[in-house]
Amino acid sequence: MAFNSDKTDEFTASTTTTTSTEECQTSAHKVSTPTATAPHHKKLDHSPSTTVEAEIHHHDDHVLPLSPSITSSSSQSSNPDPLSPLEYALAQTASITRTRTGRTSITSCASRPPDFEVTIDADDPENPKNWSLLYRSYVLFTISYSTWLIVLYSTSYTATLSPLIAEFHIPSRTLATLGLTTYLLGLAAGSVIVAPLSELYGRRPIYLICLAVFVLLIIPCGLARNLATLVGVRFAGAVFGAAMISNSPGTVVDVSRQEYLALAMSLWSIAPLNGPVTGPLIGGFVGDNLGWRWGNWLALILGGVAWLMVLGVKETYHPALVKAKVRKLRKETGDERYWCRFEETGISKGEVVREGLKRPFVLAVTEPILWFFNIWYVSKFNSQRIKGKKFRAGGDVCVLIIWEMCSNRISVIYGILYLCFVAYPIVFTQYRGWSSSMTGLAFLGIGVGTLISIFMEPVWRRVINASPKRDPETGRASPEATALVMSIGGILTPIGQLAFSWTCLPASIHPVAPIAFGILFGMGNTLSFIYGSNYLAGAYGMYAASALAGNAVMRSVFGAVLPLAGPAMYAAMTPRWAGTFLGLLEVLLIPIPLMFYKYGDRIRAKSKLIRQMRAEQLKNEKRQARRERVLNRVRGEEEEREKKEESGRAVDEKKKNDEPV
According to the UniProt entry, which residue ranges have a biased composition of type Basic and acidic residues (predicted)? Predict the structure, then answer.
């Protein structure tokens, strides 16, 4: 049954309450797409509309007090997969960026003809999850390969520093390392910039445009005549290359069915997590045999192949697919009544971009959980008020500091990983006399450790699900359960680092020993990265993408800055003691996940954003349920009226037939 425009006009006039954009988007009732020739009905009277107005205007803004254990929206899922919070967050990108930046009438959605709402349901052939297994595998391989290329290009540069320094007469190795630093800073900037663009235009156009620009910017790098050109162009290229890193996980979620999502995420992550390892390996062989410029030409060739492969990837972003379906139906039928909930957001494109750019930094500055200043501020002024809330001395201070150290632990470990790309050439090339290509082989230990951690995902899943830490509302493992796996990673990382430091020199020690201990280091890094990110996603729920974006920025900054200190530190302290210093720093971080496992629920309870998110979720659920009841009542009254009219017409027809001729 369809509502005609006259009826919707009366319905619109009577409902004048405003709400946020997300609420508008979730207010309409999902129905099947109708045929072009919808029946025309008489106008609704004002009584149902008055009821609608009264129902919607009457809402309770009172927020129930929250317990210390705060659950995110992702915890409502029935999927027992411990990675589901991260995957859920990546799948909810559209709702993340459309926060309260503007106000729009709920009638822009609720008053439209419900029978003309266009959706793509779970069993729809147009749903990317229903594409053939072969094509979905192609999509998964393509985005994984493309992401691998972006990461590989960051570290392949470090394997060609010696010929680069000789050709450009660079006075120090630290100055030459700026090419790596600026590239990582470009990835940090790009991960924030490209995310809102994909929500405006879909994933495919962003992939094609950004990857094309990235590939084209490799050409000036290969032709560079000075370090300044190389450094500047690499930064610009990384900004565009970050599109693959930011959006690829979302594409994995788009095309993967729930029961295979963890497997798909693990398979996808093999390539990007091994990009930093294969970069020095490939760059070393190319640099030794063909020169440093051919490292860029090889990346150009690989990038061209990646762009051609992405050209064969169809759009997977759900809002973009639904809007395209609406445009197609309007064009084919000439009926403008077809609509979808993603069309009218009440927010301009500029506002969406501004919010997407601003939110990670706003969270980093204003949100206690991500507020770096809290460490100094709370420890110095135990009873100071932060945002009107007075923290108790002692316990509350401790849990906030623990959270801050834990949230930055990922960034520190990531920075130490990139410091290895400076340390390994010093150890194996300078002290052991290996060539750049052979030094690249030494990174295979870290790569093997990464693969082991990924393929042991079923083991980590059982560890998390066996944890006594449970969400009181759902009974599922709480986000704190992932801290157990983080603890394992936190122990393996310093063991690998310290063992490498004390076996790398003297050269009389067989090189297999330090390379083998790189396996433990790689395992620890991978576990810390994957499950640390998963904890942030589980804690922040629908705002996880912004929290992860802020964490990605900080992670890239650490990875960019620490290698600058590497050459001087290893020269002054020797590789053995410099590595020992880093290992002891990692030892200091071991208790953090364990303490986080114990106090994590209290830490999350301190977050104003998480409490606000939970309160808004409860209110939105009430509003949505209320609108569904109102719309169902309107439809029921309309159907009842139609039945009476049809019955009346049947009686009239019978009387007419019974009349004598």
Answer: 1-10, 54-63
* Calculated CA dihedral for residues 221, 223, 229, 231, nearest 10 degrees: 30
Average pLDDT, stretch 15-30?
A: 38
> CA 272 to CA 277: how far, in whole Å?
10
Residue 242 lies in a domain: yes
- Residue 124 and residue 527: Cα distance in Å, rounded? 36
CATH at 330: 1.20.1250.20
Cα→Cα distances 42→2, 52, 630, Å: 11, 19, 19
Q: How far is CA 640 from CA 580, 632, 643, in A?
A: 80, 12, 5
Can you give the residue range of the structural domain that contains 153? 125-334
Q: What percent of the chain has pLDDT over 90?
A: 33
How far, CA to CA in Å, does 281 sit from each of 92, 439, 440, 653? 37, 7, 4, 87
Examine residue 168 and state whether it is found in any structural domain, yes or no.
yes
Higher-confidence residue of 574 and 618: namely 574
| Residue 267 forms part of a structural domain | yes
Q: Does residue 502 belong to any structural domain of this protein?
A: no
| 220 torsion bin: left (phi>0), alpha (psi -120 to 50), beta (else) | alpha
**DSSP E strands, 6-96:** 18-19
pLDDT of residue 309 exceeding 90, the answer is yes
Q: Which amino acid is at 630?
A: V
End-to-end CA distance of the chain: 37
* pTM of the full structure: 0.69
Q: Longest Cα pair distance anywhere in the chain, in angstroms?
A: 119
**476-515 core/surface letters (b: 16 or more CB in 10 A; e: else):** bbbbbbbbbbbbbbbbbbbbbbbbbbbbbbeeeeebeebb
Query: Residues 105-156: pLDDT tens digits?
Result: 334 455 577 778 888 888 889 999 999 999 999 999 999 999 999 999 999 9
Residue 576: is its pLDDT beyond 80?
A: yes
- Asked if 160 contacts 221 with a C-beta cutoff of 8 angstroms, the reply is no
Interatomic CA distance for residues 509 and 503, integer angstroms: 6
Q: How far apart are CA 300 and CA 619, in angstroms?
A: 51
Q: What is 588-640 written as a DSSP string?
A: HTTHHHHHHHHHHHHHHHT-HHHHHHHHHHHHHHHHHHHHHHHHHHHHHHHHH
The Cα–Cα gap between 255 and 142 comes to: 13
Specify the number of domains making up the chain: 1
Q: Are strands 18-19 and 104-105 parallel, antiparallel or unpaired?
A: antiparallel
